[in-house]
Amino acid sequence: MNSIVLAIALTLCCLSARAEDALPQELSLAQEAAAIQSAEATGLAIYQHDHAAAVATDAAFELRAFKQDKRVRGWITQEQKGQIIVTFIDETPAALYRVPVSKDGVAGAVTKLETPAALSEYESGAANARSVAVATKFQPCSEKYNSVVLPVPGVARDRWVVYLLPGTTKAGVVPIGGTYRMEVTGHVVTAQRGFTRTCIALQNEPRAVGLMITHLLDPIPTEAHVFWGLWAKKPIYVATPPKGTTWVVEGGKIRLIDRKG
After folding, report:
1. From the CB of residue 30, how many other CB atoms can be counted at a distance below 10 Å?
2. Number of domains the chain contains
3. What is the pTM for the complete model shown?
4. For an engineered disulfide with 162, which of 27, 112, 133, 213 has Cβ 3.0 to 4.6 Å away?
């Protein structure tokens, strides 16, 4: 751990040299605690929905009918009664297959619908938000992207948050660069942000005890760091401005290591 912290500390020394970039200001302790709690909860939700889609796809590919079904155009996910239901849809969009996935990532039986079924209000809103987000202009860092659609808590169902997650087929690579968050209301993207300035990819060597990154866009680690830490199954050490703070994101939790100033 000491060598990792030292490497981040050396990187932080360079923050002041980037005077051309406006660095975020520190949060109050109350704001910081709330932001960390939100990042942890959202990052975990992103991971659970993305992982559910992956294991549901693996389960669906066990069916010959699914392998040969050229109607499938993607999927949407919905949390229901402690499970995540993955629904594979056509271009209508209408439901073709449904797979329940437990919170610990175990897929249940795949249901093949005899005829395409109309989506529920929730499913229809999520499918629309996904289509709007992926059609919006952004700077990609991968030829393939996965998406996770989550409702905005406590508001009308026409407001969604869509996370665009770069894919990779390379072993030992964490493609954190090019991760995006888009807020969608109706048929419009109302807000958009990237979590990196470049297409940075972290090298996840088998013997590495952790990964490192300097993050200049926020004063604390974000839900993207939580997601990719869970995805990589290793801690990510994150250095943030403005004064130079070191964090570790591990097991879905964000922990302060060192705060300067």
Report:
1. 8
2. 1
3. 0.91
4. 133
Indicate whether 238 belongs to any domain.
Answer: no
Residue 2 corresponds to which tokens in the numbers above? 């000491």
Average pLDDT over residues 29-56: 97
Judged on CB neighbours under 10 Å (0-12, 13-18, 19+), 61 is: exposed
H or E element in which residue 233 lies: none
β-bridge mates for residue 153, sequence order: none
Assess if residue 59 is contained within a domain.
Answer: yes
DSSP 68: T
Q: Does any domain span residue 43?
A: yes
Q: In this structure, how many other beta carbons lie within 10 angstroms of the beta carbon of residue 65? A: 11
Instruction: Name 258's bridge partners.
Output: 246
Nearest to 42 by CA among 175, 148, 191, 196: 148
What type of residue sits at position 106?
V
- What is the enclosing helix (H) or strand (E) of 148? strand 145-151
Identify the bridge partners of residue 89 per DSSP, sorted by sequence position: 74, 95
Q: What is the DSSP letter of 15?
A: G
Helix runs in 21-87, H state only: 29-60, 64-67
Take residue 131 and report the two structure tokens written for it. Answer: 């289509």
The continuous run of DSSP H or E covering 216 comes out as none
Upper half-sphere CA count for residue 20 (Cβ side, 13 Å): 0
Tell me, what DSSP letter sits at residue 136?
Answer: S
Q: Is 124 exposed, middle or buried (0-12, 13-18, 19+ CB in 10 A)?
A: middle
